[in-house]
Amino acid sequence: MMKKQAVNPYLPGYEYIPDGEPYVFGDRVYVYGSHDKFNGEVFCMNDYVCWSAPVDELGNWRYEGVIYKKTQDPRNPDGSMYMYAPDIAQGRDGRYYLYYTLEMLGVMSVAVGDSPVGPFSYYGEIHYPDGTVVGEEKGDVYQFDPGVLVDDDGRVYLYTGFGPDIDRPEGTFIKGRSYAGCYCIELESDMITVKEKPVCVIPQVFHEKGTGFENHAFFEASSIRKINGIYYLVYSSFQSHELCYAVSKYPNRDFTYGGTIVSNGDIGLENWTMEKPDNYIGNNHGGMVEINGQWYIFYHRQTNRHSYSRQGCAEPLSFDEKGRIPQVEMTSCGLNGGPLKGKGRYSAAIACNLMSKDGAGHVALIRDYSGHPYFTQTGADREEKDDQYIANMQDGAVAGFKYFDLRDTGEICLELSGNGEGEMQISTRLDGEPVVRIPVDAGKKHLSGKLTIPAGKTALFFRFVGSGSVNFHGFELIERK
Question: What is the reported pTM?
Answer without folding.
Answer: 0.97
